Amino acid sequence: RYVGEKGTAAFLARYQDMPEGVYRDVALDGTAVYGAYSRAPISQWVAGVGVPVGIVDAAFRQAMVALTEMTLLLLSIGGGGTYVLSRQISREIAQAAEDADAISVGLRPSPVRSGITELQRLQNGLLCSFELIETRQRERDEQVARADAARAEAEAADRAKDEFLALLGHELRNPLAPALTAVHLMRQRGEHSREREIITWRTGEGDAG
Predict the structure, then answer these.
(1) Using CA of residue 183, residue 185, residue 188, residue 193, what is the dihedral sign?
(2) pTM of structure
């Protein structure tokens, strides 16, 4: 259709300036094209080819659409994974809080395995804390029990001492009663002797005069 006709003014000016090149322009029929040309160094003939922009851009658009779809897919996968991971972390943190509350009232925490290193270390720390508190509580109870046993033993020994002293006093008063009676009778009769003075001094019954 355009055989024998000159190219566009822009094309003619372009190949006169440079022996070869790639460009975007409008063809003689008004179609936007990507073109490339080269001029032979000896014959000075110019050979060129033009491809409609729509054909070239279609592949680019398809690539961009595919890239966009892939990006959206990756974002969806990443968002879903982030949501699942955040829910898991939230549940495990809530479990750690429940374990801490359980420890505060003396209950054993629930052992939970976590794929997250930091949360697993937190769970292990809570379990170790409970075991340490339990050990200290058991040691304290044992010490209190020993102290109670020692106090009960001391009280029993004190009661035994009191009973022994009371029994001793009672048993001593029985044989001393006749001796004291004899001393009183001797005093009333006015009898003075060395034996009476010894008995009086030993029993603590001194003469009034």
Answers:
(1) negative
(2) 0.40
